[in-house]
């Protein structure tokens, strides 16, 4: 709404060296737009400094902002950031900091148009025309599709317009044609708008203005050329209407406009010359943008620079309705089919935006599919910002809507606003040290057409299987210790896919089900994270067993499971791959495995197939995970007292051992704990004869003992003390039958019992994570405690 000839919006411009226009509030004098011959001065009116935001559902981030574009009538309202200058990150737009600006919430005009098309309110042709209106800030866009939320670019709109142009009605072709013409074309939208407003507001100057327009043909009549001769930067010369501008403003104003526009073009040229983005892109892509024939006067790439001063002129002179947002810039292809030439429109001189749009020109030199490859076009263009400016971190503004923040969304999703930009993280991962070099991006683009999609080209060009690459990518995105793996010259932020994890608690002894879904399918090229928390809170629970992995992994050979363990003591660690396991046992008696929580990453490396919702199981058990369970049988030889002969004995030792107290936190292995063991020993000698003619029938020997030992107290010589807490040795009566001189005598001994407290030391060796061996050489049951007995010592084995 126009009140007293004054627009109720904000225009914020930076000092371009000719006239200081400060950030914040700006005042304009009232102008009578009805009569160009008279101009009445009134007291200055203050324009509000903060635009009203329409809060709608969804997140829209404007990355690499050099301006906020709010289309008003036939033009664009700009809040201009020139981050080419130092300290730009501290500047504000309408009272908002840049961080606040990036955090805008709501739907862009493109989102609103897309929703209307999906709901059947408008047809495809209308949606594309409205998209062009939104991109250029054309006053014909219906109010219900106007939004003050900025979009980054509208490349997809113009690609689709090119693809569908032949099916447009003649009337709609006439509407859309000016949007498809280059800005230096006299019939382009830009030049048409200048002529329209000139005629509308200045009837006395119509003939003169038209005459000059025919002579100069376009307001984009001047250009600069980069040092390498590869790029022309065109800038507007509004001064072709000097008499008109001076009439509306004041004498000399047209000269200011022209000089400021040229300065912005010079900034763009300086950036391109200094940072050599064109040469760097040529190197990794092994190809240059296609020659555009004679468009722009020769075959080189053309950039059309739209400066803040040009937009100030359009705001005050060419437009007259409420504002809504447009775009920051874009790459527009010359034809519908790829490969194709094209051109850039840049509104402002932000260097990362320049790099982004320039990379689109290199992409267009390759065969590709607009619909299936759109995600990679934007993802790799955002990646290119980091490639040229690794310390600026402009690309990281998109992490809020990316696989690291929304891991459950398919990588190639283009329906979630901004996600295709956040998908830059995947090419960023591919070019990380130890994964691949930057040249992989060019190889992928070279194969996008040959393999029918960029996804297929990625599969063909990476080393190893795609599913392995995908599961590692989903692991990197956890981005917390112990998997903080991303390297970035400008630093990588503290953001993790764990923010999207679901929680599942193990609360009871027995089976606990763990859901690994959102109660819907796991999308292709996505991941689901579950944080499993140990809430049993019972010392009786000695182990937790995860099982039924095949419920998930059997659905596809591209399904994978990884786990990060957070123990109660010590540092978190990445556990072994779970994908091909039947189960995974965690021994809570082991300090490294007694966990508070475990993060499970379920990844789906399928390129089109979703995986169905399912569950795995976690079982909490009271049985110790370490034990000594063995029965040993030995044959011993006894030297008979007073004789050179010997006798044989057979004995059996059954041993059971359990942990009494868990291992301390500093223990290397979980079995380095306090143990209690019980032995049951049975021995039977063979009968033997004596030289006296007597035959001895030994009785059975029984020996039981309970003893304790503490493996956390192992000394340097691998020894540890043993404490016998209960012991009993029982000898059954021995009988002797002697026949001497025809007389036979039978004798029998009394049974014997005593406590054996003799063995007090043991030794441990062959230690590993899952087992160890211990021996007791001074023990009656296990060693050679009896001096006249020879036997193979018994070694006890601790096993998990």
Outline:
The protein has 800 residues and is an alpha+beta fold. The chain folds into three domains: 27-368, no CATH class; 501-621, Jelly Rolls; 628-799.
Name the descriptors.
800 residues, alpha+beta, disordered N terminus
Structural class: alpha+beta
The helix tally amounts to: 19
The unreliable regions are 1-98, 212-216, 309-326
- How helical, in percent, are the residues? 10-25%
Q: Percent of residues in beta strands?
A: 25-35%
- DSSP strand count: 35
Radius of gyration: 41 Å
Instruction: Please state the average pLDDT score.
Output: 80
Distance between the termini: 79 Å
Number of domains: 3
C-alpha geometry: rod-shaped
Q: Characterize the biggest β-sheet.
A: 10 strands, antiparallel
What's the layout of helices and strands?
Elements: E1 27-28, E2 45-46, E3 67-72, E4 75-80, E5 92-93, E6 96-97, H1 98-102, H2 109-118, H3 124-136, H4 155-164, H5 170-180, H6 189-201, H7 206-216, E7 222-225, E8 231-235, H8 242-248, H9 253-275, H10 277-285, E9 301-306, H11 308-317, E10 323-325, E11 329-333, E12 342-347, H12 351-363, H13 370-388, H14 419-422, H15 425-430, H16 439-448, H17 454-461, H18 466-476, E13 502-506, E14 510-515, E15 526-534, E16 543-547, H19 550-553, E17 559-567, E18 573-574, E19 583-587, E20 595-604, E21 615-621, E22 628-639, E23 646-661, E24 674-685, E25 688-689, E26 694-697, E27 701-710, E28 719-731, E29 735-740, E30 743-748, E31 752-754, E32 761-765, E33 771-775, E34 789-790, E35 795-799
Parallel strand pairs: 8-9, 9-12, 13-15
Antiparallel strand pairs: 1-2, 3-4, 3-10, 5-6, 7-8, 11-12, 14-21, 15-20, 16-19, 16-21, 17-18, 17-20, 22-23, 22-34, 23-24, 24-27, 25-26, 26-29, 27-28, 28-31, 28-32, 29-30, 32-33, 33-35
Helix pairs in contact: 2-3, 3-4, 3-5, 9-11, 10-12, 12-13, 16-17
């Amino acid at each position: 709404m126009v009140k007293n000839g004054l627009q109720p919006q904000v225009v914020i411009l930076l000092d371009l060296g000719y006239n200081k226009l400060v950030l914040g509030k700006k005042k304009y004098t009232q102008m009578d737009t009805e009569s160009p011959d008279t101009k009445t001065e009134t007291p200055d009116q203050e324009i509000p400094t903060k635009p009203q935001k329409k809060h709608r559902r969804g997140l829209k981030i404007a990355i690499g902002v050099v301006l906020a574009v709010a289309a008003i009538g036939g033009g664009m309202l700009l809040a201009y950031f020139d981050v080419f200058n130092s300290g730009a990150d501290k500047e504000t737009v309408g009272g908002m900091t840049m961080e606040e600006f990036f955090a805008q919430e709501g739907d862009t005009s493109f989102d609103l148009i897309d929703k209307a098309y999906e709901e059947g309110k408008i047809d495809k042709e209308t949606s594309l025309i409205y998209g062009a209106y939104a991109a250029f800030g054309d006053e014909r866009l219906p109010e219900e599709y106007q939004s003050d939320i900025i979009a980054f670019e509208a490349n997809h709109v113009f690609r689709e317009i090119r693809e569908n142009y032949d099916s447009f009605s003649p009337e709609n072709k006439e509407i859309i044609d000016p949007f498809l013409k280059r800005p230096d074309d006299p019939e382009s939208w830009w030049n048409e708008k200048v002529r329209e407003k000139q005629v509308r507001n200045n009837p006395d100057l119509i003939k003169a203005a038209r005459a000059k327009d025919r002579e100069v043909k376009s307001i984009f009549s001047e250009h600069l050329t980069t040092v390498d001769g590869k790029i022309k930067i065109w800038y507007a010369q509004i001064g072709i209407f000097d008499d008109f501008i001076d009439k509306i403003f004041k004498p000399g104003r047209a000269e200011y406009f022209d000089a400021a526009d040229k300065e912005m073009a010079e900034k763009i040229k300086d950036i391109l010359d200094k940072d050599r983005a064109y040469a760097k892109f040529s190197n990794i892509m092994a190809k240059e943008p296609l020659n555009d024939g004679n468009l722009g006067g020769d075959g080189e790439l053309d950039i059309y620079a739209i400066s803040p001063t040009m937009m100030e002129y359009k705001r005050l002179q060419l437009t007259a309705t409420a504002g809504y947002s447009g775009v920051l810039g874009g790459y527009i292809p010359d034809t519908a089919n790829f490969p194709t030439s094209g051109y850039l429109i840049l509104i402002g001189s932000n260097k990362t935006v320049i790099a982004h749009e320039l990379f689109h020109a290199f992409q267009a030199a390759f065969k590709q599919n607009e619909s299936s490859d759109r995600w990679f076009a934007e993802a790799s263009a955002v990646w290119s910002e980091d490639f040229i400016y690794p310390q600026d971190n402009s690309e990281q503004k998109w992490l809020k809507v990316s696989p690291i923040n929304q891991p459950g969304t398919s990588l190639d999703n283009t329906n979630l606003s901004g996600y295709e930009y956040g998908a830059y993280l995947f090419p960023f991962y591919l070019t990380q040290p130890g994964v691949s070099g930057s040249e992989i991006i060019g190889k992928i683009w070279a194969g996008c057409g040959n393999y029918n999609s960029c996804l297929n080209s990625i599969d063909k060009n990476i080393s190893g299987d795609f599913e392995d690459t995908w599961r590692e990518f989903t692991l990197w995105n956890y981005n917390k210790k112990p998997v903080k793996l991303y390297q970035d010259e400008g630093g990588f932020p503290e953001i993790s896919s764990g923010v999207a994890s679901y929680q599942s608690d193990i609360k009871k002894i027995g089976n606990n089900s763990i859901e690994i879904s959102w109660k819907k399918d796991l999308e292709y090229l996505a991941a689901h994270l579950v944080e499993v928390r140990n809430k049993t809170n019972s010392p009786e629970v000695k182990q937790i067993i995860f099982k039924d992995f095949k419920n998930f992994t059997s659905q596809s050979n591209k399904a994978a499971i990884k786990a990060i363990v957070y123990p109660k003591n010590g540092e978190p660690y990445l556990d072994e791959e779970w994908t091909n396991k039947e189960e995974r046992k965690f021994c809570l008696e082991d300090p490294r495995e007694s966990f508070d929580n475990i993060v499970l990453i379920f990844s789906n490396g399928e390129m089109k197939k979703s995986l169905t919702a399912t569950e795995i199981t976690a079982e909490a058990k009271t049985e110790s995970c370490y034990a000594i369970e063995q029965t040993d049988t030995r044959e011993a030889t006894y030297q008979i007292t007073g004789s050179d002969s010997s006798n044989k004995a057979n004995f059996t030792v059954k041993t059971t051992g359990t942990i009494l107290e868990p291992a301390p936190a500093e223990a290397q292995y979980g079995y380095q704990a306090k143990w209690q063991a019980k032995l049951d020993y049975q021995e039977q000698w063979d009968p033997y004869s004596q030289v006296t003619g007597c035959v001895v029938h030994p009785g059975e020997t029984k020996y039981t003992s309970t003893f304790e030992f503490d493996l956390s107290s192992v000394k340097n010589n691998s020894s540890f003390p043993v404490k016998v807490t209960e012991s009993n040795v029982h000898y059954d009566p021995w009988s002797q039958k002697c026949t001497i001189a025809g007389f036979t005598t039978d004798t029998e001994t009394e049974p014997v019992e005593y406590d054996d407290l003799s063995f007090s030391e043991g030794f441990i060796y062959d230690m590993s994570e899952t087992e160890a061996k211990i021996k007791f050489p001074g023990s009656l049951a296990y060693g050679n405690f009896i001096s006249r007995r020879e036997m193979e010592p018994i070694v006890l084995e601790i096993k998990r």
